[in-house]
Amino acid sequence: MNEKSYGQELYEKLSYTSKNAWEVLKEEEKPFVFDLAEKYKHFLNCAKTEREVVEYFIERAKEKGYKEFNNNIQELKPGDKVYFVNNNKSILFAHIGKKPLKEGFNLIGSHIDSPRLDLKPKPLYESSELALLKTHYYGGIKKYHWVNVPLSIHGVVVKSDGSKVKITIGEDENDPVFYITDLLVHLSSEQLQKKASEAIPAENLNVLIGSMPFNDEKVKEKVKLNVLKILNEKYGITEEDLISADIEVVPAAKARDVGLDRSLIGAYGQDDRACSFLAAEAIFSIDEIPEKTAIVYLVDKEEIGSVGISSAEASFFDISVAKLMKALGEYENSLDLALCFENSAAISGDVAAALDPTYESAYDKLNSTLIGHGVTIEKYTGVRGKYSGSEATAEYVGKIRNFLNSNNICWQTGLLGKVDQGGGGTIAMFIARKMINVIDSGVPVLSMHSTFEITSKVDVYMTYKFYSKFLRKFE
Fold it and tell me: Rounded CA gap, 142 and 386, in Å?
C-alpha cells in the first residue's frame, strides 16, 4: 500500500487545480446533460440572429407565464413575471422576488449578437453575368473562414409603406444556399504569399445569389433583374426597400454533435448564444418566488463595442428597472434606482477562450480554461493592459468562488490568452458602471468567432447549473 507522504498531502490541501467535470458528474445528472444539449442545439438552429433570439425567447417566456410589461401595468407583486423588448433586438426578463427591489436583484447579462456578414444598404449588383450581394463584416472575423461554405440569409425588410417582411433563406433542406467564391488554387500563387488577414480582402466578401438572366434583350442587367423579380414575387420588395433592411448572412450549417463520444457541440454563434440560452433557461426554470428579484438581460451590439440603441450601453436597462420599481411602489427619485443597483449582484455571461492544444503558444497555459472542466469565471477581461475591460474585486470573486463550491458546481478560472497576444471585452464594464458588482462567467469555447465553434456538453450543463443557483439564491 502506497501511503501519501506529508508533502503530497500538504500539496493536495494547499494547491489548486480544476477538475474534469465528466469525472465528478453524478450518474443521475448525465441524462439532463444530454437533454439540455439537445435543447441548446435546437435553439442554435432556430435563432441565428439577434432578432430571431428575441422572437424565440418571447415564445418561451409566454409558455412560462411571462407577460410583456407595458405602461398600462400599474402594479406588480412578488411572483409576477414580465419582460421588456427593445427594438426587437434586446430583451429583459424579470421574476419579481420576495424582498423589495430596492434591496437589489440578481442579474445575468449576456449578448445575443455574433460575428457575421451584413448586407450593405445597396447590396445587389451584376458582374460577368452573375448576381452578387455586397457585404460589410460585423464583429471580429477571420475573413477566410467565410469563403467556400454554404451560407443562409436572415433578416427583415421594411417597405416604403412601413410594412415589414421577414426573410429566411437557406435553412430548410429544400432551400437554396448562398456562397462566397475563392480564387482557385491553380491561380493562387500571389494570393498564397499574402498574410492571412490580407488573403481575402473585405470587399471580396461578395455573396453569389444568382446566374439566370431575365429573358429580355433590351435589359442591360438581366441576371440582376431576374433576382429582383424573384424577390418581388416572393416578398413584394423592390431594390429600394433593401435600403431599409437588416439582412444578415450566416453559415447555413446546423448544430451537430462532435466526437465519437458525442461530448461536444459544434455550431455557429455559440459566442454568445451559449450563455444567453443558459441564462434565459435558468430564469424560466424558477417556479418558486425567488428571495431577490431575478433579472436576465440579453443585449445586442457587444461584438462591435456595445454601441447603439439595442446595446448594453443604452439606457434601456435603467429605464426598465425604474419601471419595475414604480410598478412595485418603490420609486420616488433617481436615488432609489441608484441604491437598488448598489445592492445588486451580477454575472456577465460570456464565453471563454478554451485552451487549444494545437495553438498552445498563444495562451498562458497556467491561466487558460480547459474544455470539459466546467463553467469559467474570469476576474477581468480587456485588451493589452486590461483596457476596455472590467475587473471584479477580490471580495466579489471570493464570494462567487465560495458560492460555486458550496453548490457543488464544477468551475475553473482563466484569461483570454497571453497578455500582448490580443484580448477582448464583454458587457461587464457597462454593468459595473451602474455600481453593480459583476464577474464574467460562461462556457469555454474552441475556435471562437469562427463559422463553427466548439463547446462541451458538460460545460454547458455546469454553466446552466451556476446560473440557475445564482438567480435563485445568491446573497
Answer: 23
